[in-house]
Design goal:
Length: 180
């Protein structure tokens, strides 16, 4: 399996897990979603907003590279979040709609990547203005790992609220293959 194929799998896993998380959270009242549960971003809503904020920041960075600019044009045109704990959407339905929109863009964009793209060194500044130059494949690994990390937190918060989201393992999307 190529590195590009692995990233396509990660994009599919990202979308699948977001559908599960948002589907489970949809059954909660707004007050339960916004309830401070002592997590790093406070609530289920706060943590889900953080993932959207971080995804937006990273995708806008990725769009700065000429190879990725066309596939990420619509994302690049979004307003830039100010802080990692910004609440972009108080309304869960609006947040869910943005999540679906982002996931569709991620799936389409990752499908356009080439092996050469994955070897590009991307120059960007972090949210504190510190410059960085990092290999794109490593940044993409971070991008998907960050989502997984915070979805794990949301899974715990949902469990505390009495909601079971079911199977979350990437293994569920990895096909069984015949031995040669």
């Amino acid at each position: 399996m190529s590195l590009r194929t692995n990233f396509e799998l990660m994009a599919a896993y990202n979308q699948w897990m977001n559908e599960k998380i948002y589907g489970a959270a949809r059954g909660l009242e707004q007050t339960e979603l916004a309830k401070d549960r002592g997590a790093f971003f406070g609530s289920i809503l706060g943590t889900l907003n953080h993932i959207v904020v971080a995804d937006t920041i990273w995708l806008k960075r990725f769009a700065m590279h000429p190879t990725f600019s066309i596939a990420l044009k619509e994302v690049a045109e979004l307003p830039s979040p100010n802080k990692l704990n910004d609440i972009l959407f108080e309304d869960f339905a609006a947040l869910s709609e943005r999540r679906d929109w982002l996931d569709n863009h991620i799936i389409c964009w990752v499908g356009t990547l080439s092996d050469d793209d994955l070897n590009v060194v991307l120059r960007y500044h972090n949210t504190k203005g510190v410059p960085a130059n990092r290999r794109f494949s490593s940044l993409l690994q971070h991008f998907f790992n960050h989502q997984t990390h915070h979805r794990g937190q949301v899974s715990t918060l949902l469990s505390q609220a009495g909601v079971d989201i079911g199977v979350t393992d990437l293994l569920a999307l990895i096909p069984d293959e015949a031995l040669k």
